[in-house]
Every structure is written in structure tokens, then in C-alpha cells.
Write a structure and sequence with these properties.
The complex is a heterodimer. Chain A is of the alpha+beta class. Chain A has 9 helices and 9 strands. Chain A has a 5-stranded antiparallel sheet with strand order 8-7-6-5-9. Chain A has a two-stranded antiparallel sheet with strand order 1-2. Chain A has a two-stranded antiparallel sheet with strand order 3-4. The longest helix of chain A has 20 residues. Chain A is extended, with a radius of gyration of 35 Å. Chain A starts with 5 loop residues before the first helix and ends in a 16-residue tail after the last helix. The N terminus of chain A is likely disordered. Classes of the chains: A alpha+beta, B alpha+beta.
Chain lengths: ~290, ~120
């Protein structure tokens, strides 16, 4: 008899929303296919609440009484343990063997990875007050002025390239703007610029078809500094990379991006000369009156 | 010595105020400082306006004093004041000034190059 109402039961156990749509013919086909596999799993419809309400938020029976009423002692489910026997829980490594110098020392030592604390303070650290919304820099929200869109010509205001007009490519993860001269036009390479120290002009280059390599991120542009002053004061200056060398990768990336950008720049008359020129104020020119 | 006079039908250019930049016709004189003014084809309602904000142009229309707006509009369109005004040097200078103020950085570069030619 339990099988005689398959139209309601088999789909309802899966999707309680679809119970009474009155579609008996397609519903009968489903349980016919399902009933073969699911004859043993006769899960019935959900029972109404077994805990009558006395007042809002207060039920008649306690937690333990409800446990018994719902027969949860019979209904203990655990997730199926598939392949755990095969994999055997991997414990994190507790010790590591490290090599040790000097002869007659045995060559290696077994060292614990996580050691016991070497100091316990006399007073416990006081509990910190809850703070809210204090995020680390990597999770900050980055904003971009509406006037700066990919392909905009920007005027750099600070740095060694101040006054130069440059093409904006994209905003990087830290919020800095990736920008290129292009190099052949004004000797500005692929470089980062800060949004605040830039004037956005209304001139735009169509960069929609330009593909910027994915590896151009902040880490790529970050300055590298050696940090191993094992010597004393006298010899440090040799090891520091004072002279910046342009790596081959930078050159190839520059070429890849610039070839695409230059093609677009050539389409606009006089744009190349514009990018070659620098911006300057002169007598009678007031930035607040200029339209960029 | 004076060539442009305040008279009924004189077209004036409003130099400042809420209707700055528009043309109006003087319909009647109220007192020493104000005139009744109307600009049906330039979007100025019939109103009193001080003489100080008006600058007289060379154009005069023919209509009787206190004529209603319909008459002013007919006279205005008959004389084609809007086109005549746009052809004057005065209006062209105003337009050039506006264009210059709107120039973008790229336009300024192009102008600089063009001047050098």
C-alpha cells in the first residue's frame, strides 16, 4: 500500500515543493524508474512538529523528552567512510631531521617541528575587545575613479616620468594602475602608477582587443631587496643591487603588450605625437579651469 | 555718438543673471531702470528686466508697445533674428570662447600643432 501512492511519495521525498501539481502521468513514470532502485528506502513524508507550542518560543517538552519522542536514538547518521581505510588519516609531521655541520657530530639531528613554549607569562594575556570591520590590506576594497577606464590617457604627476602622457591598461590587485608609455613613444615601460598622482584625460584608446598577460601582477613589479647582511658593516654595499637591470622577461612582456597598443594608437591621427609630448603649466593656465 | 538706443522692439543680449546669454526684445519701458522684456524664440518669459543686464544689439523689430507675445514672435520670426544673430561677429566670438573653454588636453595639443604650421 505504501507503494500505491508513488506519485506523491517518490518525488516528494526529494523535493517537497513539488508535491501537489496534479501531474500524475509523468509522476508515475518517475517512481516506476526510481522504485526499482529505491524499494527499500521507504522514507515517508515529514511528520508535523511533535512539540506543541505553549506560548511563542516555548514548547511543551524538554530537549531530552523530545529526543525520546523523535526516536533520535534510532536515527544516528554518520557520513559514509569511503576510502579512509585506504588513505589512512595523515597526521601532520611531528619531527624533521636536519643536517648538522662539523665532523664527529653524527651528521643529522632529529628536531621537533612544533616545540613547547619557552616562556609562560605570569599573568594571562587579557581578552581583547571585539573589533569590527578591521581588515588586512589584502582584503581592502579597491576603488577606481570613474574617469579612469582601460585605454584612458593619463598624465603622470610624480616620479621620474612626471608630465608624461601614458596609456592606462588595468588596475592591479593592490589598487595601483598598470600603465605603459608605450615604451617606443615616450620611454615609459610597463609600470605601476598611483591613482592619486595621476590626471585622467578624456582621451581614450580602444584597448578592448588588447590581451594583457596574466603574470603581470603586483608581485612581478615589486622591488626586490636582498636581506642577508651576514657580514659586518664594511662589506654590505657590494651585495645590494644598486644597479637595476632590465630582465629579458620584462623586455618580452613590454614588446608583447606594446605591439598591440601601438597598433591602436596609430589609428587615431596625431595621438602618437600627443603621447610623445609632455604636460606643463604656463602663465595664465590654471588647472582648475582646464578641462582635461 | 550713440548708435543703439533703447526703443520698443530693440533686441538685447542678456549678459548676466539667470537668462545669461539669451536674446530678448524690449516690449515696453517700465521706469528708469527696468523694461518689460520678452524672448519668445529664445526661451525667456515675458518679464521685467533691469537695463543693466541688457546689452543692446543692432537689431530692431517693429511692433507696437506692450504688444503680446504672439506679435513679438511673429515679428521675430519674420526678421529671422536667430539666424542673423548667429551670423554676427559678436555671437561668433561668444561661441569661440565657449569652445576654447571646453577644449580637452588632446584638443589643446592639436591646436598647438596647428598654430605652428
Amino acid at each position: 500500500a505504501g507503494e500505491k501512492k508513488p506519485g506523491e511519495k517518490a518525488p516528494s521525498e526529494k523535493k517537497p515543493g513539488k508535491k501537489k501539481t496534479g501531474e500524475k502521468k509523468p509522476a508515475e513514470q518517475k517512481p516506476i524508474q526510481k522504485a526499482v532502485g529505491e524499494k527499500k528506502k521507504k522514507i515517508k513524508k515529514h511528520h508535523a512538529s511533535r512539540n506543541p507550542v505553549l506560548a511563542r518560543g516555548i514548547g511543551r517538552y524538554s530537549r531530552s523528552a523530545m529526543y525520546a519522542r523523535k526516536a533520535l536514538y534510532k536515527r544516528k547518521y554518520t557520513a559514509p567512510e569511503t576510502k579512509i581505510e585506504k588513505k589512512k588519516k595523515e597526521k601532520p609531521r611531528a619531527t624533521i631531521t636536519k643536517p648538522v655541520g662539523g665532523d664527529k657530530n653524527g651528521g643529522t639531528r632529529v628536531v621537533k617541528i612544533r616545540k613547547m613554549p619557552r616562556y609562560y607569562p605570569t599573568e594571562d594575556v587579557p581578552r581583547k575587545l571585539l573589533s569590527h570591520g578591521k581588515k588586512p590590506f589584502s582584503q581592502h576594497k579597491r576603488s577606481l575613479r570613474a574617469s579612469i577606464t582601460p585605454g584612458t590617457v593619463l598624465i603622470l604627476l610624480t616620479g621620474r616620468h612626471r608630465g608624461k602622457r601614458v596609456v592606462f591598461l588595468k588596475q592591479l590587485g593592490t589598487g595601483l594602475l598598470l600603465v605603459t608609455g608605450p615604451l617606443a613613444i615616450n620611454r615609459v615601460p610597463l609600470r605601476r602608477a598611483h591613482q592619486k598622482f595621476v590626471i585622467a584625460t578624456s582621451t581614450k584608446v580602444d584597448i578592448s582587443g588588447v590581451k594583457i598577460p596574466k603574470h603581470l601582477t603586483d608581485a612581478y613589479f615589486k622591488k626586490k631587496r636582498l636581506r642577508k647582511p651576514k657580514h659586518q658593516e664594511g662589506e654590505i654595499f657590494d651585495t645590494e643591487k644598486e644597479k637595476y637591470e632590465i630582465t629579458e622577461q620584462r623586455k618580452s612582456d613590454q614588446k608583447a603588450v606594446d605591439s598591440q597598443v601601438l597598433a591602436q594608437i596609430k589609428k587615431v591621427p596625431q595621438l602618437r605625437g600627443y603621447l610623445r609630448s609632455t604636460f606643463g603649466l604656463s602663465n595664465g593656465v590654471y588647472p582648475h579651469k582646464l578641462v582635461f | 555718438v550713440f548708435k543703439r538706443f533703447v526703443e520698443i522692439g530693440r533686441i538685447a543680449f542678456i549678459s548676466f543673471g539667470p537668462h545669461a546669454g539669451k536674446l530678448v526684445a524690449i516690449v515696453d519701458v517700465i521706469d528708469q531702470n527696468r523694461a518689460l522684456v520678452d524672448g519668445p524664440c529664445s526661451g525667456v518669459r515675458r518679464q521685467a528686466m533691469p537695463f543693466k543686464c541688457m546689452q543692446l544689439t543692432d537689431f530692431v523689430l517693429k511692433f507696437p508697445h506692450s504688444a503680446r507675445q504672439k506679435c513679438v514672435r511673429l515679428a521675430w520670426e519674420k526678421e529671422n533674428i536667430n539666424e542673423k544673430w548667429a551670423a554676427t561677429r559678436w555671437a561668433k566670438k561668444i561661441e569661440a570662447r565657449e569652445k576654447k573653454a571646453k577644449m580637452t588636453d588632446f584638443d589643446r595639443y592639436k591646436v598647438m600643432k596647428a598654430k605652428k604650421m
